[in-house]
From TrEMBL:
Listed name of the protein: Tetratricopeptide repeat protein
Lineage top rank: taxon: Bacteria
Keywords: Membrane, TPR repeat, Transmembrane, Transmembrane helix
Lineage: Bacteria, Pseudomonadati, Pseudomonadota, Alphaproteobacteria, Hyphomicrobiales
SUPFAM superfamilies: TPR-like
Residue stretches of each TPR repeat: 425-458
Pfam assignment, any one: TPR_19
Transmembrane segments: 156-174
Length: 592
């Protein structure tokens, strides 16, 4: 791909005049095919990809291939303004990858018999139209491919097991940085520890937990609404799980750590969808849930989408079923994980450090992640979590002298994570977190919006974006996201609560701020102490404000001497900083 003199990427390379003809297809037939694609359920649910595809197809049909560039796609199809800079905002590359994936999925599924195939060759954004009879791919059987995310995962050949898993296989090499090899790697063997009870302590097969989404059983007597099926629900479950960077999805039992099973039944008015998650090493059921939904009021597609999202969030979020279960087996710091499971140990350590900040645990998490990233090609999640660990050090205020260096390191690592895996929601979340600390609010919010688009079901990503909005001055919107994230993740990290306090104060909701601050009692984290101090001060509670100030003096002796550097380091909102400076001075005056 070339670049224009102003730095905007030019995706017309590789398309001379001959290459921009209609590829042997009539213009009217191509437009009819476009309408078929746009009417499919997947594209109907994605306005951004509809706009992207329509734009590039119409530009080619109208003989304007020179306008099919990253900059024009962003500004004319994706809603970016004229200041769009492709070097700072990867939206076009990310959306192009999604579009290629959805087109491939469409032509393996709903569009398998369509007369024209549409694809977007890599290296540019100009679409290619192929009559179905000329498409070798449409007649060829699926090729063997990697089954799951992760550099040490087995490969498996898929037959008619489902189009989605074929799509996963095609993209996993990219997502996990696995290099092609002449022969597939051997199946990773689980190392099992025994804690004396005969139950395996940690029997995971590789770096990250992997889920097999089994066929969803349908009650033979059930009268399911048209368009509702176990196969469709299974597909949506797999898609929703795949959005989480720390979870692998497979269609092969030998490669899985967990099996997600489901059953659908109904009566005349309601649908009953039951699920359970089985840990394959021991056969124990680690989670089960029943979704009872009305069969009227929502389309079957929306019901399946909602249920799949809710189930995936419960199972795959950082503090959800799988990682809580893994921590119960390997320890929250991953200490009991086998050597072949170093990635899992790093992830558990990182999530534990973020749940309730510990400088020691965060330092060990950072060292673990950095070592893994340096020694071999780990899953994308490892690269994305590393800058978050550096950002956590900055927020903690425990080492103010290293703040500038740690922030620059975090920024470099976050950008690298996005470059390595632009489809990684966690990488974009990391970039947003670091940019917020740097006070670069517009860039941070852009990264956060992209993270949410890639995975709208992850409470950590929702809460991070909510906090970024609060720090940028949009407390109402930020608070709404933080409250939502807290509901999705009842066992949420402490920083959710801290940001909710600041959001509530910014939105003028003092009662909510006071209620949330109460749950921070006993915490010695800098941000928690600051939140408690500000709430007490603005409530006129001098005794509680002095108590919070004493705790700050004890934990952070330099803070009382000169609070401004610390506040600037951990609180990017100038308005909140000003209010806290007033609270600190008032508490200090009360002590005299």
């Amino acid at each position: 791909m070339s670049a224009t003199s102003d730095g905007r990427d030019d995706a017309t390379d590789g398309c001379g005049m001959d290459g921009c003809e209609m590829d042997g297809c009539e213009t009217g037939a191509v437009r009819l095919e476009l309408s078929r694609i746009l009417e499919s359920p997947a594209f109907a649910a994605s306005p951004q990809l509809r706009s992207f595809l329509t734009y590039i197809v119409e530009r080619k049909l109208q003989g304007e291939p020179e306008r099919i560039k990253g900059y024009t796609i962003a500004t004319e199809a994706l809603g970016r303004d004229a200041s769009f800079d492709p070097s700072a905002d990867p939206i076009v590359r990310v959306e192009a990858a999604r579009l290629r994936r959805m087109l491939a999925d469409y032509f393996r599924g709903p569009g398998v018999r369509d007369p024209i195939r549409v694809d977007i060759p890599k290296g540019g954004y100009i679409p290619h139209f192929t009559p179905a009879g000329d498409s070798d791919a449409s007649a060829a059987p699926p090729a063997p491919a990697a089954a799951i995310r992760g550099p040490h995962r087995p490969r498996a050949a898929y037959g008619a097991a489902g189009a989605f898993f074929l799509m996963i296989a095609a993209f996993l090499v990219y997502r996990s940085f696995e290099m092609p090899s002449s022969s597939p790697p051997a199946l990773a063997v689980a190392t099992v520890h025994d804690d004396g009870s005969g139950i395996p302590v940690a029997a995971f097969k590789g770096d990250l937990p992997v889920v097999l989404v089994a066929a969803i059983e349908e009650d033979p007597a059930a009268r399911l609404p048209g368009g509702f099926s176990g196969a469709a629900l299974r597909d949506k479950l797999a898609r929703a799980l795949y959005r989480f960077d720390e979870i692998g999805v497979t269609d092969t039992a030998d490669a899985a750590d967990y099996r997600l099973e489901g059953h659908v039944s109904s009566d005349q008015e309601r649908l009953f969808l039951s699920f359970r998650l089985v840990y394959l090493a021991s056969g124990e059921i680690v989670w089960s849930s029943l979704f009872d939904v009305a069969s009227e009021g929502e389309t079957p597609d929306l019901v399946q989408e909602r249920v799949a999202r809710n189930a995936a969030t419960a199972i795959a979020q950082p503090y959800g079923v799988i990682f809580n279960h893994a921590a119960s087996r390997a320890g929250e710091d991953g200490a009991q994980a086998a050597g072949t499971q170093e990635g899992l140990a790093c992830v558990l350590r990182t999530f534990s450090a973020q749940r309730r900040f510990s400088a020691d645990l965060n330092a060990r998490s950072r060292a673990c992640l950095a070592g893994l990233a340096a020694r071999r090609r780990p899953p994308a999640a490892i690269h994305a979590l590393l800058p978050l660990a550096y950002a956590e050090d900055v927020r903690s205020g425990t080492d103010p002298a290293s703040r500038t260096a740690n922030l620059q390191k975090a920024l470099d690592l976050a950008r690298r994570a996005v470059e390595i895996a632009p489809q990684s929601a966690r990488a974009h979340q990391a970039l947003e977190s670091v940019l917020v600390l740097l006070g670069r609010h517009e860039e941070a919010l852009a990264a956060g919006r992209l993270a949410l688009e890639l995975n709208p079901n992850d409470p950590d990503i929702i809460a991070t974006h909510g906090g970024a909005l609060v720090m940028s001055g949009d407390s109402e919107k930020g608070l709404a996201l933080l409250v939502r994230a807290g509901r999705l993740n009842p066992d949420h990290p402490e920083w959710y609560t801290v940001m909710t306090v600041f959001g509530a104060l910014g939105a003028g909701k003092s009662k909510l701020a006071e209620a949330e601050a109460e749950s921070l009692a006993g915490s010695t984290a800098l941000s928690a102490l600051l939140a408690r101090l500000l709430v007490a001060h603005e409530a006129g509670d001098g005794a509680r404000a002095r108590a919070a100030m004493r705790a700050l003096d004890a934990e952070f002796p330099d803070f009382a001497v000169d609070p401004d550097p610390t506040l600037r380091a951990v609180l990017p909102s100038s308005a909140l900083r000003a209010r806290l400076v007033g609270a600190v001075r008032a508490a200090q005056d009360d002590k005299r």
